[in-house]
């Protein structure tokens, strides 16, 4: 167990990284976050100014991909764990704090599962809007974006992932989250 100092997180480490749900293969290059980032996000006109942030990094393959595209100085990931000790992944417990990041050009919100971390995801989404650059992008859950759309304070366009004709994403629609995730283009 690498750098796990708090017993509160030991059970999560054991469940995810010591075999529980086969983390080592599940959050790799076939994980929806990586496939969406590789095939869609990397093709978007991400603003030239602002950070690219991933909340919920898993193994860190998306953070590494983004670092290779946009540079280490613009990319940061947050998670409870950093099993491969990626230098751009920082510890974050979303139940306790929000990171000191502003001027974000792209954000992915993928902490925990939607069934268990719905309120934390929504709080991160609201916080993200207050810290985005104009015409930035957010990858998040479709249900949360539809709820947020009801509040006129937030101005964004919804880009449905199932509008893209990318065969690798259509192989397993459930796994790639084509119908449950969306990209928001902010208009701030």
Your description of this structure?
With 188 residues, this protein is an alpha/beta fold. 33% of the residues lie in helices and 21% in strands. The chain is built from eight helices and seven strands. It has helices spanning 10-17, 23-26, 32-39, 61-70, 114-129, 142-149, 167-170, 173-176; strands at residues 51-55, 75-79, 89-91, 104-109, 132-141, 156-160, 181-186. It has a seven-stranded mixed β-sheet with strand order 3-2-1-4-5-7-6, sandwiched between helices. Strand 1 (51-55), helix 4 and strand 2 form a beta-alpha-beta unit. Helix 3 (32-39) packs parallel to helix 4. The radius of gyration is 16 Å and the shape is globular. The termini are far apart. Mean pLDDT is 84; it is low at 1-6.
Biggest sheet: strand arrangement: 3-2-1-4-5-7-6
What coarse outline follows from CA principal-axis ratios? Answer: globular
Q: What kind of sheet is the major sheet?
A: 7 strands, mixed
Report the end-to-end length measured between terminal Cα atoms: 42 Å
Taking pLDDT < 50 over at least 5 consecutive residues as the criterion, the unreliable ranges are 1-6
Give the DSSP E fraction (strand runs of 2 or more residues).
15-25%
Q: Tell me roughly what share of residues is in helical segments.
A: 25-40%
Sequence of secondary-structure elements: HHHEHEEEHEHEHHE
Class from helix and strand fractions: alpha/beta
The total count of helices amounts to: 8
Rg, alpha carbons: 16 Å
Oligomeric composition of the shown chains: single chain
């Amino acid at each position: 167990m690498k750098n796990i100092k708090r017993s509160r997180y030991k059970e999560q480490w054991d469940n995810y990284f010591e075999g529980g749900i086969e983390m080592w293969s599940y959050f790799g290059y076939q994980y929806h976050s990586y496939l969406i980032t590789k095939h869609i996000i990397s093709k978007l006109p991400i603003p030239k100014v602002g950070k690219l942030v991933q909340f919920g990094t898993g193994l860190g393959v998306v953070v590494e991909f983004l670092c290779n595209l946009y540079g280490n100085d613009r990319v940061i990931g947050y998670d409870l764990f950093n099993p491969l000790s990626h230098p751009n992944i920082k510890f974050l417990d979303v139940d306790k704090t929000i990171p000191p990041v502003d001027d974000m050009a792209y954000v992915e919100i993928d902490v925990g599962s939607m069934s268990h971390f719905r309120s934390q995801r929504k709080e991160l989404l609201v916080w993200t809007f207050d810290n985005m650059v104009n015409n930035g992008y957010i990858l998040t859950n479709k249900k949360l974006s539809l709820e947020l759309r009801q509040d006129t304070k937030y101005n964004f366009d919804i880009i449905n992932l199932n509008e893209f004709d990318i065969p690798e994403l259509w192989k397993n629609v459930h796994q790639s989250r084509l119908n449950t995730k969306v990209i928001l283009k902010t208009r701030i």
